[in-house]
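Audit log entry. Action: structure prediction of a protein-small molecule complex. Ligand: zinc ion. The ligand was supplied as SMILES and no pocket hint was given, so placement is left entirely to the predictor. Protonation state taken as written. Sequence taken verbatim from the request; no trimming, no tag removal. Recorded inputs:
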Amino acid sequence: MASGASEHRTGPPILIDAHTHVFADPKQNPYPRPGGADDLVRDLDANGLDAAIVIPLPGSASNDFVWRECERHAGRLLPLYTPDLGDPAHALAAMDAFFRDRRPRGLTIHPRMQKVTPADPAVAQVMRWADDHEVPVVFDVFPFGDDVDDQRLWPLAYHRLAREFPGVTMVLAHSGGFRALDGFMVAKANANVVLDVSLTLRYFPDTSAERDLAFACRRLPAGRVIYGSDFPNIGIDESLHTAQEKLTGLSDEQRVALFGGTARRLFGE
Ligand SMILES: [Zn+2]
């Protein structure tokens, strides 16, 4: 985690992409650009980004694979860990074993893929573990496809969980998608909720969702919104340029926090 000394670093502010994925097998990458770890690092370099948080995906990017790829790019790629919610009884023991000699930067749950909702006991037990181990939890919150009408996965469903675990920082990835203002209200109501602007800014160009998200970035205090791309779904270059162009009216403090300062605080450098 960030040390006291790093608060006083000089030079340009650190830039972190807080939401990326990498794939072992190109055939498992459903997205429109190469998605290997080397591709990611090359694109970070090309755009002047210091580091990226890498999020495992059940079925296509395992915890072990993501950990190994991040080890290969130590200091540039920072791994998260997905608990195995298909086997809740075993999930905590597996996490304990994985974290015994490795230290992923946080946990991540993809409720649509993992077939859980934030109200499920399996999610609560992961939150309790996160509280004990002082790690943040990143949730995919982009209502979509078969589950688009499932309000148990909409951003407002995270309010109760945030209240139940006030000591755990919860990142609502994609800020709630088309329900971005709901995501904003949950963040407004809970100091432990952080929004991530990945995907949503590029998915809804020139719509009210884009403007709502820009509003949320201005309206929430520094430290409550983080920048991310969702690479390789979205390119590092297009994502960064869109965020810089559309997220206007921020204070210097808000901008530095959004583009890396907060991710460094949450996930370490
Ligand atoms: Zn993602």
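Audit: result stored. The two ends are 7 Å apart (CA to CA). Residues 1-7 have pLDDT under 50 and may be disordered.
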